[in-house]
Every structure is written in structure tokens, then in C-alpha cells.
Structure prediction request, 254 residues.
Amino acid sequence: MNISAHQIDLITHLVKRNFVLRYKGSTIGVLWSIIPPLAQFLILVFVFDRVVPLGIKGYPAFVFTGILPWTWFQISVSSAGFLFLNNRDLLRNPHFDPWILILVETLINLFTYLILFPVLMVTLIIYNRDITWYILSVPLLILIQGVLIVGLSLLIATMNVFYRDVQHMASLAVILLFYVTPIFYQTRAIGENYKILYKLNPVAVLIQGYGAAFFYGTAPDWGSLSLAFMTSIVVCAIGYYIYSRNLHKIFDVI
Prediction:
């Protein structure tokens, strides 16, 4: 997957254009990109800090740390299935590489995280969380998560061209994955017999990495993070392999 200067310019243009078009005609515009994660954040805080308290000190900051990267993952993977189908005009251009749509969508959804990043920092300060040098590990976490998202999105977008059930299966999988990812609860609450499942879940490892860097002010678990990185690379390689093997069929079906 080589990226030329022309493709970089094209990706930049599409990110700007699609981000603007997504909220064109809306009364509050870009605010719609931050309302869903904020609404989910408020609901989780209300339920697990007030109604059924989990006893986590600084719980709002804890949840906010996890909900932002989760939102990036959730929106990207859940919307991947129709990226090729909804952009038939672009795909019919012989000089356009369809994988660019995956990268553009991943970057657009990353903006939600970046837009709310200052709010996250303020929340951490309000709840007396120390900002340490380990926050410098966040770009690495973003890179690993981006590779994972691109790989899964390539796989889902490609297969959904031929089997429309794939999109629905992906959306269901994301919903279920939310509950087995330590976003609104701590990993220490997980039974010993099940902790291995969280170590093998790259999304869970990434969320724990964000929590370590932001909320606890400590280093991520480099061993688990290395495994998550390798898993993300493998997933991305598999996604690109399936995409490249079926590219000519995609053009025929589209």
C-alpha cells in the first residue's frame, strides 16, 4: 500500500470535503460529531457513579478516557460496510484507489477524539489526575488503533460488497464488544479465569493503555501493547490481502 504525493493531496481534500458535507445543512453542524460520545459518557456516569456506583474514584474522568477512543473505533467499524457501495461514482474512476475511502473515513472519525481532547484534559485536571510524561505514549496508541481500524474496515467494506449481511454482523459485534472492553469498569474487577480474553482483545488492551497514560499516569502494559500492535498489523495485512484479491470483482459488482 504505497501512498504517492498525489494520493496524499487527494486524501487531504476528501477528509476536508467529507467532514464538511457530513454536517452540511445541520443547525449545529460539527457539534453533532461530539454529542454522541458526550451523551454516552453522561449516561455511563449517571448509571455507574450514581445509580449503581462502582466505587471508582474520579469515575467521570475514568469513563471519558475510555469512551473517546472507543467512539472512534465504534463509528469507523460500524460505518465501514457501505463505504464502497455509497461511493460508486468515485470507484468508477479508473485512477481512484478504493482503499483511500477507508483511510479518509478513519481520519474523519479520529477528529472527534482530537476535538474533545482538550475537554478530556480539563476533566482529568478537575478530578485531580496527574498529567505525566506517559501521555507521550498516546500517539503510539492512536497509531496502533488506526492500523486496526483500517484493517477491519477494509475487510468489512470488501466483504459487504458481496454479502450484505457482513455490515449487520459487524455492527452487532461492535455492540457486544463494548461490554467486554473495560470502558466503564476496571480490569481488576475481571475474574482471573477471563483476564486472558482481555489480553488477547486488542481493543481492550488499547483502552487500558489510554487509561494508564491519561487516568493513572503510568506506562501502558508494553507486553500486551506489543501483542496488540502485532495483531493490528496482521488484521490490516489480512484486510488488505482480501481487498486486493477481490478488487476487480468489486468494480464488477459496483
